[in-house]
Amino acid sequence: MATSPTPTPTSTSNPTRRNRLWSAVATVAGAALVIAAAPGSLPAPDIPRYWPTGQDAALTLLVGRTLDEGRGGAAEGCAGEASRAGRCTGWREERVRATARGAGSVLRGSASRKTGQAGRAVMLPTDAGGPLHIALADPGRLTDVTVRDGHGRYVGGELAPKSRQWTNTEPLRAGESYTVRVGAQDASGTPVGVTMAFRTAPPPQRGRLTVEFGPRPGTYGAGQIVTAALSRPVPAADRAARARLERLLEVRSEPAVEGAWHWVDDSTLHYRPRTYWPANAVVRVRSGLDGVAVGDHGYGGPSESVRFTVGDRIEAVTDAAAHEMTVRRNGHVLRTIPVTTGKAGFRTRSGIKVVLSKEYQVRMRGDSVGIQRGTSEFYDMPVFYATRVTWSGEYVHAAPWSVESQGEENVSHGCTGMSTADAAWFFKTVREGDIVEVVNSEGEPMAPFDNGFGDWNLDWRAWRAGSALSAAAAPAAAPAGVSARSSARLRPLT
Fold first, then answer.
1. CA gap 267, 436 in Å, rounded
2. Dihedral (C-alpha) 24, 58, 115, 179: value to the nearest 10 degrees?
3. Tell me, which fold does domain 314-457 have in CATH?
4. What pTM value is reported for the model?
5. Domain locations in the chain?
6. Which end of the chain is more exposed for a tag (fewer CB within 10 A), N or C?
7. Which residues are catalytic?
């Protein structure tokens, strides 16, 4: 498939008749249909120039949706002869005439199948959550179907075998106007077409599904995780709703990277690239949920978008067995620091962590990590230049009391300790989202989600398995050079 250039509208010889033909308006439960091409009557009245004038060729299109697939309303089975013969009890449609002039009229049945009819109220059975079908009722083939909303966004779709029916693959939005352009060829190969528009009913204003994104706008490290907190749960059992929601949570970066969402629980998703963010990347996160029906979980509502940048790639790797930390910026070693990590019984967690915050002074107490007051291991002291890497209280911090052990042995209760000068330098060098990894500690592995951002400890296959759009459920990729948003466009055969 390929896109075709935006053409110039073709005029008709009788402006009065043209305006009358394109003025039929229908208001129905959930939608209004407009057959229109006169200037100003559509958001984008662009009729392809490849539809010639002065010919009598015409096709009848069936525009509507399958209401009951279990009663013979399957999409492919209800196109053409089957629909006209009345064998599709679940298929509801409106008949629209596509002509060589790009004009047409709304028809209600075989007795009304003629051009020139205008001003009738008709029923278009398309709601905001249901699929939109465009099929041929006469011999021929579809060559171009473009559906675009009032904001200029394309609705993706796919053509059935034999090019006789098009179905949207992206959901329609409530409270939105749509422009539909259809190009086709009749049995003799003559191009015909029509432009239509419809509006969907507005969604309810209360109880809508929204999302709060993290992090806040700012500059972060290359390990920063994007978070999405939903206003209501979407259970794992409803995989279709989860998949629809994921497709509408958009993360874009410059430069572009491969990434995916992962469901942490029914109300929380995390997004990360396959590898760390590139240095100096710009990341934009937005929700397309507004007005979209999400299964049985209601309609999506408006949510604030987020933009953040990624700074230099800072990685701090602590080798607990060697008692040293190596800090790199964009792959180059900045400093090697003598450290001490967790001793026996308090081993520092192994694996990849992400800087969560920086606190100049923290009061650390043993009972916060399960050490009883009054025992020899209990402590209660102020600690400076504390860089937090877990919510449970693991830090990289100044430990002037253990300078003699730093670089020699592990004597801490789980944190990574260093001299005050080194801790101050580290505190100044790193930012939220920077990577802090611990190896050879003999400690338990860093948990992926419940104690900070341990997301990077899952390999890419395991990460993708947490997406409702994993390989088994993901749609086929669009051909090279065709964007997912415009893949409904087909090049006409002339």
1. 27
2. 10
3. L,D-transpeptidase catalytic domain-like (2.40.440)
4. 0.72
5. 15-202, 211-311, 314-457
6. C
7. 397, 415
